[in-house]
Specification:
467 residues, alpha+beta, Outer membrane efflux proteins (OEP), two-stranded antiparallel ribbon, 9 helices, 66% helix
């Protein structure tokens, strides 16, 4: 009796030790799994970070910023004309044959005759500095104005390029994440079909099923594998496009945060104001630039007043000895005012002015058309997002119902109540309903992007203001 009690106590103690070890191992595994998931989530890139990455590294944005810098240098170049323009010039001439001048014979007492005289020296050289200072020019003022407007145009174009890249990045991210959901859905369907294949094989072995039913399942399995392969190709291609868009190295791994399939936000931001849209600002600045160009052409008719000066040395030698200290260099200096005024250009300026006026009329027409077009796009986006929300709710309920029907049909098939045709139909309906739901969610997110874009607050909605 005592030996039995001692043995029972010893076995109980061994059992407790094993359980403690097992619990410890489980805790370690759970902690490790939690750390692994946390580290994956920590290294994943959210949509906001993708957009910031694109703004920093996208090729189109970089080129747009360079165009702004070029326009700024254009302003500096236009303003530089108000400063004195200094030029150094030097020249050395060697006459192989000296020029001949014709003088009247009266100079040497031979009236009525011409006297040909060789004048000058074989070697001539001069060096000096010329200065020119603009005093008054209306064309200079309009030129600076045009350069500033061109810079503003490039800045607005850079903003538009950034908005386009933000839209493309968000759109491609949503498409990629929904493609992943589609791939996951197809893989889940494949798992169910493979399980059904095993069940049918077991039923065939037991003589309660026919081989034709098993073959039908295998055909569906093969078709589904092909769909998964095609969907995997789409996912890989979309990810490569996303890397290219944000300036991410193709060889570097890009982990993205999973898109939460949350309920749609029914409180939509309302309001439309064409004046805040980049497309309208771009056209209005273009119109101002065209008007400034017209003013510049008209200003070219106004006289230009400038001051000039020159200080130089020259030397004339019979032999090549410019630096001989026995012969001096002669200095020349002059200062003065220069007034330049066009008198007749054959109608060139008038034709250029008419061209600019017609261009302004075209831009005004384009502004009117673009305003109405953007208004139409806003109304369409508003209707589209409302329809997408309704469709998303319907497809979500339909997917849940299809899942319930499949579970019931599968149970009935195992019990022999229904046949394989009904089960495969239920499986196809479940797959289609899931894929349709994901497509509806993608349509909702894209409609949301369109609405924000037509309201001019796409960037603020996605990432807020950036320094």
């Amino acid at each position: 009796m005592c030996n039995s009690i001692s043995l029972f106590s010893f076995e109980g103690l061994k059992f407790q030790i094993r359980m403690r070890r097992l619990v410890g191992i489980c805790l370690i595994l759970l902690l490790g799994l939690h750390q692994h998931v946390w580290s994956q989530e920590e290294g994943a890139v959210a949509l906001e970070d993708l957009i910031r990455q694109a703004i920093r590294n996208n090729y189109a944005i970089i080129n747009a910023e360079r165009q702004v810098q070029q326009a700024q240098y254009g302003v500096s170049a236009a303003r530089a004309n108000r400063f004195p323009q200094l030029t150094f010039e030097a020249q050395a001439d060697h006459y192989m044959d000296l020029p001949v001048s014709v003088l009247p014979g009266e100079l040497v007492g031979e009236p009525g005759t011409d006297l040909q005289v060789v004048m000058g020296t074989a070697y001539n050289s001069n060096a000096g500095i010329k200065a020119n200072q603009l005093l008054f020019s209306r064309a200079y003022l309009t030129g600076v104005e045009q350069a500033k407007l061109n810079k503003s145009l490039m800045e607005i174009q850079a903003i538009k390029t950034q908005e386009d890249v933000i839209y493309q990045t968000a759109s491609l991210y949503y498409q990629y994440e929904i493609s992943l959901e589609n791939l996951s859905s197809l893989e889940s369907n494949l798992t169910r079909l493979v399980e059904l294949e095993k069940v049918s094989q077991l039923m065939l072995d037991q003589g309660v099923a026919i081989k034709t039913e098993l073959d039908r399942i295998r055909i569906d399995v093969t078709n589904l594998k092909a769909m998964i392969l095609q969907q995997s190709t789409i996912v890989d291609y979309q990810k490569k496009l996303l890397k290219l868009l944000i300036g991410w190295e193709d060889s570097k791994e890009l982990m993205l945060k999973k898109l939460p399939l949350s309920n749609p936000d029914k409180a939509l931001p309302l309001g439309y104001e064409a004046g805040v849209l980049t497309d309208i600002k771009l056209l209005e600045t273009q119109l101002a630039l065209q008007h400034a160009s017209e003013k510049g052409i008209k200003a070219s008719r106004i006289p230009v007043l400038s001051a000039f000066g020159q200080f130089s040395y020259d030397a004339k030698r019979r032999e090549l000895n410019f630096f001989n200290p026995n012969y001096r260099w002669n200095s020349i200096s002059v200062v003065g005012l220069r007034l330049s005024m066009p008198l007749f250009d054959g109608g060139n300026k008038r034709a250029q002015i008419k061209q600019q006026q017609l261009a302004q009329s075209q831009t005004l027409t384009q502004i009117d058309y673009t305003t109405k077009q953007l208004q139409t796009e806003y109304q369409h986006a508003n209707n589209q997002i409302n329809n997408s929300i309704l469709m998303l709710e319907v497809q979500k309920e339909n997917a849940l119902l299809a899942h319930h029907v499949y579970d019931q049909t599968k149970l009935q098939y195992k019990e022999g109540i229904t046949d394989l045709t009904d089960l495969l139909s239920a499986e196809t309906a479940l797959r289609d309903s899931e894929l349709t739901y994901y497509q509806s969610y993608l349509n909702y997110k894209l409609a949301q992007l369109d609405l924000w874009k037509t309201q001019g607050n796409l960037k603020d909605q996605l990432i807020g203001s950036m320094d």
